[in-house]
């Protein structure tokens, strides 16, 4: 009877798991959708992004240390291991999860090493403003010889990166091409737009580089999101509160990721639709991860054993902590170097997660008393 109840509970949570994973994945679309609304971008300043990432890190680390790790321990005990053995297994798998993310990062960076470049792109856009720097914006002052300052800043970052990779720093000089003169301007100069033919834009090596940067980073983020979707779905099968916590944290940090994928594609192509589509596709890997998880569950007879959950939760706890430490917090401090909001955001994230877990525990306890 207990096995039947376990199977029924997991099956009841399947739809919830897919909903949570899909919502977290679509958060990249929410970030990318900002290219359609300059009004929303006004709130997406550096402190806003830093606070969002800090909040996500707080939620993710708290739920990993306090909830997911001990669920791994409890699952091993339920399987039949002694307490000391169960705790040792959970601990070993926690660090195995950290190693897994490190190895995954090596794979991702072998495909694309543009993550740092993208954050620099976002830095430029956030400093200069969004609508002022839209390619081809006819409402702004135009010049036939000078593109927008933000675009030139992005180009300069890209060119400097290429020079560093070659082991030398080349002097940046104005470039001339048919119908267009690219003149590097200082930060703080007036933002002016570019008047040029579409064919010239397509041939501009800087714009080609920007476009490739965005596409490759979308692919890299998609690979990185895959295990997050799988973990969220399988976690929801056992406990929807854990799945909801993971989906919340993942969704929060997917918003700035979507924005930073869309921006270079938008500036390189001038197409809002294309930039939105590619950022959206980077989040689709999370529902795909959930679908594969569901296929594994079905293939195993429609249920996941306590041993499998013990292994899963141990790995997930380590993975989420490593993502927080290696990705979310460093990026948050990039946007908030003086730590005006990040530390507070991390604490708020922990408090919010703690309160939600306490309220959930009280609700479950109340239901048990009624029965």
TrEMBL record:
It is found in: Membrane. Keywords: Membrane, Transmembrane, Transmembrane helix. InterPro entries: ZIP. The keyword Transmembrane applies. GO terms for molecular function: zinc ion transmembrane transporter activity. GO terms for cellular component: membrane. The keyword Transmembrane applies. It comes from the Eukaryota. It is a multi-pass membrane protein. The chain crosses the membrane at residues 14-36, 48-70, 85-108, 213-237, 243-267, 276-301, 307-329, 341-364. Pfam families: Zip (PF02535). This is Uncharacterized protein. It comes from Amorphochlora amoebiformis. The lineage of its organism: Eukaryota, Sar, Rhizaria, Cercozoa, Chlorarachniophyceae.
């Amino acid at each position: 009877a207990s096995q039947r109840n376990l199977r029924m509970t997991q099956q009841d949570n399947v739809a919830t798991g897919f909903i949570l994973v899909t919502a977290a994945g679509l958060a990249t679309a929410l970030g990318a959708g900002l290219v359609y609304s300059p009004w929303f971008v006004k709130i997406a300043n550096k402190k806003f992004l830093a606070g969002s990432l800090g909040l996500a890190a707080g939620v993710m680390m708290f739920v990993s240390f306090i909830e997911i790790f001990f669920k791994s321990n409890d699952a091993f005990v339920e399987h039949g291991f002694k307490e000391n053995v169960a705790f040792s297994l959970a601990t070993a798998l926690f660090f195995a999860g950290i190693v897994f993310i490190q190895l995954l990062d090596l794979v991702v960076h072998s495909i694309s090493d543009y993550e740092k470049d993208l954050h620099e792109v976002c830095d430029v856009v956030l400093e200069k403003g969004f609508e002022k720097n839209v390619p081809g914006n006819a409402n702004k002052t135009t010049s036939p010889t000078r593109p927008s300052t933000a675009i030139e800043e992005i180009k300069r970052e890209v060119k400097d990166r290429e020079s560093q990779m070659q082991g030398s720093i080349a002097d940046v000089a104005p470039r001339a091409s048919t119908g267009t003169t690219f003149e590097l301007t200082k930060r703080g100069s007036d933002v002016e737009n570019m008047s040029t033919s579409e064919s010239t834009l397509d041939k501009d090596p800087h714009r080609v580089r920007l476009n490739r940067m965005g596409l490759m980073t979308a692919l890299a983020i998609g690979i990185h999101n895959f295990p997050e979707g799988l973990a969220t779905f399988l976690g929801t099968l056992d406990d929807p509160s854990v799945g909801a916590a993971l989906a919340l944290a993942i969704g929060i940090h997917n918003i700035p990721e979507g924005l930073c994928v869309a921006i270079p594609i938008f500036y390189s192509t001038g197409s809002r639709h294309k930039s939105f589509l590619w950022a959206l596709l980077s989040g689709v890997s999370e529902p795909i991860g959930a679908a594969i998880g569901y296929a594994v569950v079905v293939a195993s007879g429609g249920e996941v054993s306590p041993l499998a959950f013990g292994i899963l939760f141990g790995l997930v706890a380590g993975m989420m902590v490593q993502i927080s430490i290696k990705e979310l917090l460093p990026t948050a401090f990039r946007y908030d170097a003086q730590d005006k909001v990040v530390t507070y955001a991390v604490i708020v994230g922990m408090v919010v997660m703690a309160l939600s877990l306490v309220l959930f525990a009280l609700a479950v306890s109340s239901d048990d008393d009624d029965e």
